[in-house]
Structure formats: C-alpha cells, structure tokens
Design brief:
The protein has 16 helices and 22 strands. It is α/β, with parallel strands linked by helices. Helix 1 (about 20-40) crosses helix 2 and helix 10 (about 270-285) runs parallel beside helix 11.
Amino acid sequence: MGLIKFGTDGWRGVIARDFTFDRVAVAAAAAGQVALEKDAKPTAMVGYDRRFLSREFGVEVAKVLAAQGIRVLLSKQFCSTPCTSFVARREKTPLSPMLTASHNPAIWNGFKLKGPHGGPATPEQTKPVQARATELEESGFNPSRMDWEEALGTGAITEIDATSDYLAEVKNHVDKNVIASAKFKVVLDCMYGSGAGYLKALLADMGIEAVEIRSDFNPGFGGVNPEPITANLRPLIDLVRSSGAGLGLATDGDADRLGVVDETGRFVTTQEVFPLLLQHLYEDRKMTGDVVAACSSSIMLPLLCSQYGLKFVETPVGFKDVCAYMIEHDSLIGGEESGGYGIKGHLPERDGVLCALLLIEMMVQRGKKMSELVNDLMEQVGYHAFRREDVHTTQEKKEEALRRARETPPDSFGGIRVREVSRLDGYKAHLQDGSWLLVRASGTEPLLRIYCEATSDKALDDILASARKQLLDE
C-alpha cells in the first residue's frame, strides 16, 4: 500500500517525509485520470492555503493536470477551502484539488478534492482516485509536467482571482443592512490562515471596522496549530477582554472552520455554535430543511429538530459524508463538532466566513449579546457541557482501547448506565441521563479522540475520567 491515503478529509502528510512533490504529482495525476474518464474536456480549479510550500505544491499540481490536457484555473494567491469549492461549482469541475492541511500542525500539508457540487468529493468520488493513486504510486509512475511558461502562454493554465467573486457570493447570503447596524466591536483572529482579510473586507464594506490579528504571513502559525479551540485562541480572548469587544471570531488554517469568543472572553463551544446557527436559520430566517450532523455533534441538535418538526440525520465523522447527504436532500444546515457548518442556498461545504456573519446577524436581529444567546439556548433545550480530549498515545494502546470498546464495552461510565450503543463511526455510548461518549481514531492525525457531552459539568468530568480508566488504564 502506498503512502497516499485519503482519510476523512483528503490526504495529509508531513512535508518532505510523506508529503513530497513526487507524491503530490502522483495524486494530481490520479485525480486527473479519473476526471478525464468522466469528462473528455474537463476543467480543474487549484487552490492553496498559506502553509509552507503550498503555492509551490499548487503549481506542481497545475502542471501535471495541464500535461494531461485538463484546463486549469490556478488561484493567483492563497485562498480558503470554501473559495476553491465555490469556483469548482461555478465551473462544474469534476475534481478540483485544494492544497491544505487545514488545522494540522505546521509541518503538515494536504491534498483535498472538491466536486462539481461545490463541496468535498464524496466517498464515491474519492474511491477511484484512491485506487488509481495507489496503483500509480506502487508502479513508480512519474507524471509528466507541462512547462510553466508554455502552460501560461498557451492558456493551459490560467491564474485567476478566486477570492473576489467568492466574497461577493458570501455577502449575498446575509442581510447587509442588519449587520451594518451592529453597535459592538468585533475582533477577528485569522490564525495566520488563508482567511486573512476576508471577514475584515466584508465587514468594512458594511461599514463595520473590525480589528484583525494574526493575519500576516507566518507558515509556522506562531508555533500554534491553526485550529480555533480555546487553547489556541489566547490572543483573541485577551484582546476581546481588554478592548471591550462584543464578539471574537476566529477562522482556521483554510477558513472553513469557525471559533467564537463571547463578550466576556469565554470560548463558545462548537457544540453551542451549531445549534445557535440552526436557531437563527429556522426561527429568525424562517428556513426549513433536514439537519445533517456528524455523530460527534451535540444532542442539542436533535432536541431542537424535535421542537421544530425537522428531520435530523447523523453521519460518520468527516464533512464528506455530511456533504454527500446535503447534495441529495433538501438540507437546512450540515456540520460537525470540529466547527465547520454548511448552509442551505450557499455551498454544501463548511464556511467559517459565512457562518461568522450569520452569528453577527443573529445577535443584531435579536438584540442580544453572544453570552445571552447561549443562555437562551440552554433554557430552550437544557444545560449541556462538552469536551473533546485528543489522546496522544502509542499505536498499541490506541488499538487496545478501540478493541475494548468494540469487544468488551463497559456497561456504565461515571456511574451512569449505557442505554444504547452506536457503531456508526467508532464506539458511541448513549447514557441513561442523556449524556453520550464517543471514542474513535482520528482520520487526519495519529491520535485517539474521546468526545463527551453531558448534562452537568461534574458528569462530564466523571464520564471522561471513567472512559480513560476503563479503556486506557489511566
């Protein structure tokens, strides 16, 4: 088996060790061959983030695809993942590569594929690319590359401004007048990612001057993984508190995920943001449709769906499965615990920028602070606390924990009995009091993830401690 392996969100690897120019070329050739089998004269959009060598990897991909006779649109500068997906849908490209490792550490890079629907390539679309990449890699195949100057001169590769039209599209999905009337200060944290300047420009166009931090070019991400979680957002939290801002918003390395900080400096969990967006779409905007969520998402979602009379659908972790459902059904919102949400009428793709604007819109329309919106949510569906623990352990211990969960699962956690078990993705225990615990191996990093949502802070601590003891002997 080769080293090119597509997981929950594309193929990722450590730069120079796993993720090399030769392997990227093979992955591009595999995607190109599969695209040519679907369309005799296909187009491909190639986007890339601000990671080390992302532009260079993007050019390599473009030259390989051009050599195959594929018309290539290459972003002139770094762009977000949803931006690449937007162009992929507009141009109806069979498969479009995005060079990014999203929230992974700086030494990683990645190769995502976007489909003609404007979202992650579905499992059915990715499967033949994986098979072809393995075949080519194991055979020692060395793809042809078109000369860069020749490709530009003949129009085989065209460099485009992918950002402007995408931002205009995002702006069409919010009420600009409502947002323009916001009376609170907004702080934006780009985490050195490819969303730099996006929200600042959109808000400025609506007459709101926002403060932007960590927006300069820093492929090392300041020594912090570009994942918008509490531990990585200290500069944002501190500035929100010291400046008296009403809201802090952070986007991850490729701007498809969103992190939120309220006016007190508290990190609003992704499990709270998802149902808040659902509330806004259904209650304020009067929109309907199915709600699609990865199995690591909050129990608050099905509780709201029950109140609203909406269908709730659960998928394995990974937005490609959420997207696969969204493109086949009338879906209001789809998302996952990691902070990425797709909105009806836009793209079947996570978009941190659009969701950030929708939260501002919700605050203004309801005339409430972010902390008040969260309190209102808890009053509507009951208090819920969530925590995800990423366990860096040995492969042996990880496999043993998964084996125990699979073969000899505990009958209780933290003194609360297991009511039902789901194996949609890993091991998920639904407990008698409405709490739940999920244990699964990460599809993007070498670690074990333990997720828990409970009806009290104490229960949360007790359930997680019990899970570590029973599954990991900790």
